[in-house]
Amino acid sequence: MTDRRAFTAVDLGASSGRVMVGRAGNGEFDLTEVHRFANRPVRIGGNLHWDILGLYREVLDGLRAAGPEPVSVGIDSWAVDYGLLDGQGGLLGNPVHYRDTRTDGVMDEVRAEVGARRLYDVSGLQFLPFNTVYQLVAAARTEQLENAETLLLIPDLLTYWLTGEIGAELTNASTTGLLDVRSRDWAHHLTSLLGIPQRLFPPLRRPGDHAGTLRPDVAAETGLPETLPVTAVASHDTASAVAAVPATGDRFAYISCGTWSLVGVELPAPVLSVESRTANFTNEAGIDGTIRYLRNVMGLWLLQESIRTWGGADLSALLAEAAEAMPFRSVVDPDSPEFLPPGDMPGRIAAYCERTGQPAPRSRAETVRCVLDSLALGHRAAVRQAARLSGREIDVVHLVGGGSRNELLCRLTADACGLPVIAGPVEATALGNVLVQARAFGVVKDLGEMRALVAGTQPLRRYEPRGDESAWASAAARVGLG
After folding, report:
1. pLDDT at 467
2. What would the pLDDT profile of 89-135 be if each residue is shown by its tens digit?
């Protein structure tokens, strides 16, 4: 390794964003948060939008707070959502939020027209109603889309505003449903079939590619040099998180746990079987030609939205009470469609339980226990399916991201999966963002060295399984997660 160098990671999640400075080299690796901010959607004219200009302002504030020490900047975010640019590079309206209802029913229409088999064989992407392909079909014949010259996913849009350079980073592009999973290029035959203009899709970048340097106005506003490079990282936040999984070898599953739980394995090639399509597993691009073979589980959204509905709550106290509550009194399928939109999550959970002949939670603690038991069941089902469909043997589960702080969820996941769970690092996405930049600058050599650096420097906790398999199997059968 070379001497330590500093890198700025802009990490945007669906509910909050942060700007971190990571320092790596000489066997050391640390991360400092310099700016954190909320990411709150805005409803306008009946549609739910991202406040993209507000997010960009926060990014600039974060770059200013990071100061002149970092030698590069990288941006990652959630997937699928995009901004449209006109011929002069101006933004045509605020990006629409993936939880907006404009795509209701569109996925089924596209599958009927094109065929689920054909869609999956091209992109390898799981069928989710908010995928970019369905958003674009929903936007067909709108004035915005007809006037658009370029489509940029969220990290690419922010990179464009910082540098003036247009491009699309591969790992995020692979979540659109419009990338050919084999060739790793835009699937123009599919976009033509769907009537989506081919002009929208810019040249692709790979993680580690140079994406430009700061525009003069950005440099003046942040106090940073115009020569500061912006590096394309694994800009889908899950791809960055998986890059920072502290694994040795390949016999591991990962759960990147936050608002969503992304559960899967890392493979050298996609799995495009009928069984994989039926199970709704996705094949998304990772770094170094890898495939993130995974399935979305609804994740901590159920808990976050419950707490929001309650007007806030002491989470630590709730988790302590939930740990003492009766296990499996009530469970839900966390991926049931009624849990996707914002709203009264505790009420929806109670209604689900009553509809399925289970007792509704009687208290907030029982609601939390229901959520966490259910998420552990979702993790269990996805880990087992990933192993079976891919043929990959699994010895350990790495749970990274914000969910790794939740001791009860980690313990329940180990019990449910019947496998050891290694929890951490919490800031896996930002760490992966920094590591890709560090490798581009020669600080680390390869993916193995990146992961070894995480394992050797970040706090991790191991949970051994201790659960009753028959009890988990019985609970899973109640909600069809066996």
Report:
1. 75
2. 999 999 999 999 999 999 999 999 999 999 999 999 999 999 999 99
Mean residue pLDDT of the chain comes to 96
| Contact between residue 315 and residue 308 where contact means Cβ atoms under 8 Å apart | no
Phi then psi dihedrals of residue 366, to 5 deg: -70, -35
Q: Is the pLDDT of residue 278 over 90?
A: yes
User: 249-259 pLDDT, tens per residue?
Assistant: 999 999 999 98
Residues 233-249: tens digit of each pLDDT: 999 999 999 999 999 99
Residue 1 pLDDT exceeds 50: no
Q: 456-476, pLDDT tens digit by residue? A: 999 999 999 997 899 999 999
| Contact call for residues 431 and 200 (beta carbons, < 8 A) | no
CA distances from 379 to 120, 167, 241, 334 (A): 23, 34, 17, 10
3-state secondary structure the chain: CCCCEEEEEEEECCCEEEEEEEEEECCEEEEEEEEEEECCCEEECCEEECCHHHHHHHHHHHHHHHCCCCCCEEEEECCCCEEEECCCCCECCCCECCCCHHHCCHHHHHHHHHCHHHHHHHHCCCCCCCCHHHHHHHCCCCHHHHHCCEEEEHHHHHHHHHHCCCCEEHHHHCCCCCEECCCCEECHHHHHHCCCCHHHCCCEECCCCEEEECCHHHHHHHCCCCCCEEECCCCEHHHHHHHCCCCCCCCEEEEEECCCEEEEEEECCCCCCHHHHHCCCEEEECHHHCEEEEEEECCCHHHHHHHHHCCCCCHHHHHHHHHHCCCCCCCCCCCCHHHCCCCCHHHHHHHHHHHCCCCCCCCHHHHHHHHHHHHHHHHHHHHHHHHHHHCCCCCEEEEECHHHHCHHHHHHHHHHHCCCEEECCCCHHHHHHHHHHHHHCCCCCCHHHHHHHHHHHCCCEEECCCCCHHHHHHHHHHCCCC
Which pTM was predicted? 0.93
The reply to whether 237 belongs to the active site is yes
Give the residue among 402, 396, 400 at the shortest CA–CA distance from 417.
396
Contacts of residue 108, Cβ cutoff 8 Å, sequence gap at least 6: none
Confidence of residue 482 (pLDDT cuts 50, 70, 90): confident
CA 260 to each of CA 242, 305, 360: distance values in angstroms, whole numbers, following the listed order:
14, 12, 24
User: CB of 381 within 8 A of CB of 405?
Assistant: no
pLDDT exceeds cutoff 90 at 14: no
From the candidates 11, 81, 156, 237, give the one annotated as an active-site residue.
237
Contact 361, 353 (CB under 8 A): yes
Query: In this predicted structure, what is the pLDDT of residue 2?
Result: 53
For residue 301 the two structure tokens come to 């959204």
